[in-house]
Amino acid sequence: MTTTAVRPPVGGLLRDWRQRRRLSQLELATEAGVSARHLSFVETGRARPSRDMVLHLAEQLEVPLRERNELLLAAGFAPAFGHRGLDHPDMAAVTRALDLVLRAYEPYPALVVDRAWELVMANATVALLTEGAAAHLLEPPVNVLRLSLHPDGLAPRIANLPQWRGHVLHRLGREAHLTGDPGLAALHRELAALPGAVDRSTPDGIVVPLRLRTDDGVLSFVSTVTTFGTAVDVTAAELSVEAFLPGDAATAGALRRAAG
């Protein structure tokens, strides 16, 4: 006996995304340039939206590409965005670009992660961050957030762990809410349950640093994130490069010496 999964109606999905973005029907209708009456009919199923309307509303709601495909399928249309693996020939330009960026950041650590925060690529200097982590946390697929907060990972070496935990959990919780991804929500619950305090106070300075204990003393890093701004493929859209740049002159010098 086989069962067929029933997709939720597109109107209900659009309503969920609107509520997740904290918009009223009138606000979304105004931004999208449609009547509030028509939008109401779409959400309740009294009107069937066209393919262009689904994509237009998804754009206004900043729905991720993966979920835009799901909206189209729920409305009875084919997906609009490809979902190729990085080993696909069409993705060669993407992998070359990522490799170029990672190499350009050396001697500073930089890595590529997907939406689930699983490690995709990294430059050689990342080994400085992962030094001493338990083998089971470094077995693929490596989740970099779990690696950073786990007591068998980087956590014992992070000098400002409560502050860093607060930053990571806030960021992950926000992403889980904005994407509606149950996997990210489950990861947030898992990491929040790990031992360690959380400092949610307003930090001093400009950004929250990662202060890591090493043989060269405590090194201070500032993280930056790079994404593909014009991606029309799900895989490319969900990749990001996170670089850990020196937060002070001592850290910059230690990284240059380590590279040499």
TrEMBL record:
Domain of life per record: Bacteria
Domain HTH cro/C1-type stretches: 14-68
InterPro entries (UniProt xref): Cro/C1-type_HTH, Lambda_DNA-bd_dom_sf, MLTR_LBD
UniProt GO MF annotations: DNA binding
Name this polypeptide is given: Transcriptional regulator, XRE family
Species this chain originates from: Trujillonella endophytica
Taxonomic lineage of the native organism: Bacteria, Bacillati, Actinomycetota, Actinomycetes, Geodermatophilales
